[in-house]
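Minutes, structural biology subgroup

Action item carried over from last meeting: produce the structure token record for Fe-S cluster assembly ATPase SufC (Flagellimonas lutimaris). EB confirmed the sequence was re-checked against the source entry. Recorded below for completeness.
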Amino acid sequence: MLEIKNLHASVEDKEILKGIDLKVNAGEVHAIMGPNGSGKSTLAEVIAGQEEFEVGEGNILLEGEDLEELSPEERAHKGVFLSFQYPVEIPGVSVTNFMKTAINESRKAQGLEDMPANEMLKKIREKSEMLEIDRKFLSRSLNEGFSGGEKKRNEIFQMAMMEPKLAILDETDSGLDIDALRIVANGVNKLRSKDNAIIVITHYQRLLEYIVPDFVHVLYNGKIVKSGTKDLALELEEKGYDWLKEETAV
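Output recorded by EB:
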């Protein structure tokens, strides 16, 4: 689904990613952990095509297709979805209208007609019920006045509606209480399938008790320095990152 080869990326001449190699197959969930400033969010944004980052060398392939020349919108139409750490508020645009526009733009890019209104409403109803979202929530302006938990749940609702091939969840757990975390994680688990892949970026092992990854990677100083199973996340929770820093410095 996703293959990253020797990816180097910088912002304002400061190199942040220093040679990332990563392969994510369809049906897999990969967790990326690491201390602050290690490049986790940068990696997510570079995959999604955020234009402030300059890719010096390396490739990002989605199902074998190089994404380098594609804009963020084109990457979204190909099936890349990024759930933001800090979702922005868009006053005057309802959650429902935002989703209708996003889905129909994606369909247009694939040469399809707009989704019929009755089909769209059915899909909105199904996905909102699955994520325990109140129907009144859908008529509110996007993220305006939403609590942290509502914003994150809304991001997962967007993911459910868009049905991406590759979903990247950037610190979806930050600021969530245990109930909101459970609902968001349950939503993600229901969306896991053999046809998609999910990358979860997190600081804490807590989220990985709910969304169990197939692989855990530790990003430190712009490189993946260790990979393993869920046990690696437990080890990090117990020991912190200092032992890895020492290991990497040797």
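Discussion: The chain has one domain: 2-88+147-154+163-249.
Next step: EB to file the record with the rest of the batch.
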